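Query structure, 340 tokens:
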């Protein structure tokens, strides 16, 4: 049997890594979308909490749906980390946006109604936008270790803190229907930086657990993970259907991780004039998709609530103004049975 030459063997190995890494990323997206559905449903059965209050997580722990979502989210994170060891960060994060489609379809199935057509199309627009960006950008992977420099780490931390703080201030000033978007941007930023930190640890994975524990990125992941989860739960509580919130941090996550990859991990995308034009057009499609989702979700939620005989998402409960009414007809002073 004739052996392949070095160049052919290298191409075969790269192709196998690409296929396996992409499959792992798709599996991570499915687990992520399913976990998000369970988290959204759990959040609709607990009283409203102020932004970034850890008490919300304590309430959610007592919800069966939310407890089931935790191992699914952990599986999604593990699959994502495995994919990041094989393929570029930009590719993995772009594939993860398919979790939004899993979310829309599964939520409709669990609530026994057809998926809302416009929401499904707008979710597809988000997916197409990121897919087009990936195709045009043609990302390449290098073993950059720029985050090993504390100077670069300080710049990353400053950008993260400034972005999250600005989002929280904006959320505090907005009405209930607009509040999920800045909260979701904050959550997506935390998730994107976490993905960047995981990717920057790839060079240490082969040296064993002790080497990984000796890197500051490991402890950054431990801190950022719970913060991102808490902010995403606040976003689910604040808005109807959860799709706009999920779309926002699903899109923000890869965009932030792309920025981390380009600035610190030596990843590259095409940067000629035509490629930049196409990349900007694809990102514009993403923005339009999220905007349309945010507009459509309240109306779709009202229709679903009417079918169930529940109050509309914008209707006020006793002692509430219309802007403060909870999504999905669940009032803030009433909980569903703990087993939901």
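Result returned for the query:
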């Amino acid at each position: 049997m004739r052996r392949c030459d070095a160049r052919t063997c290298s191409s075969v190995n790269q192709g196998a890594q690409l296929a396996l890494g992409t499959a792992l990323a798709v599996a991570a997206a499915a687990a992520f979308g399913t976990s998000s559905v369970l988290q959204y449903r759990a959040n609709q059965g607990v009283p409203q909490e102020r932004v970034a209050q850890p008490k919300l997580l304590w309430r959610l722990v007592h919800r069966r749906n939310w407890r089931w979502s935790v191992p699914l989210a952990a599986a999604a994170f593990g699959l994502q980390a495995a994919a990041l060891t094989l393929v570029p960060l930009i590719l993995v994060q772009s594939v993860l946006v398919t979790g939004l489609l899993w979310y829309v379809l599964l939520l409709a199935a669990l609530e026994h109604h057809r998926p809302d057509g416009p929401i499904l199309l707008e979710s597809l627009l988000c997916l197409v936008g990121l897919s087009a960006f990936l195709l045009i950008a043609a990302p390449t992977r290098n073993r950059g270790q720029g985050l090993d420099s504390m100077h670069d780490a300080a710049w990353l931390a400053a950008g993260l803190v400034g972005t999250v703080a600005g989002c929280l201030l904006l959320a505090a000033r907005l009405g209930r229907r607009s509040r999920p978007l800045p909260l979701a941007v904050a959550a997506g930023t935390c998730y994107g930086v976490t993905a960047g930190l995981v990717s920057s640890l790839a060079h240490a994975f082969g040296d064993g657990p002790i080497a990984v524990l000796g890197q500051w990125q490991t402890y950054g992941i431990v801190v950022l993970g719970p913060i991102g989860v808490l902010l995403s739960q606040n976003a689910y509580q604040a808005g109807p259907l959860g799709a706009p919130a999920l779309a926002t941090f699903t899109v923000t996550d890869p965009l932030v991780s792309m920025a981390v990859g380009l600035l610190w991990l030596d990843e590259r995308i095409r940067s000629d004039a035509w490629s930049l034009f196409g990349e900007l057009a694809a990102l514009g499609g993403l923005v339009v998709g999220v905007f349309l989702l945010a507009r459509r979700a309240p109306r779709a939620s009202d229709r679903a609530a009417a079918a169930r005989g529940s109050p509309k998402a914008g209707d006020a409960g006793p002692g509430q103004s219309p802007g403060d009414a909870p999504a999905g007809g669940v009032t803030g002073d009433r909980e569903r049975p703990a087993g939901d």
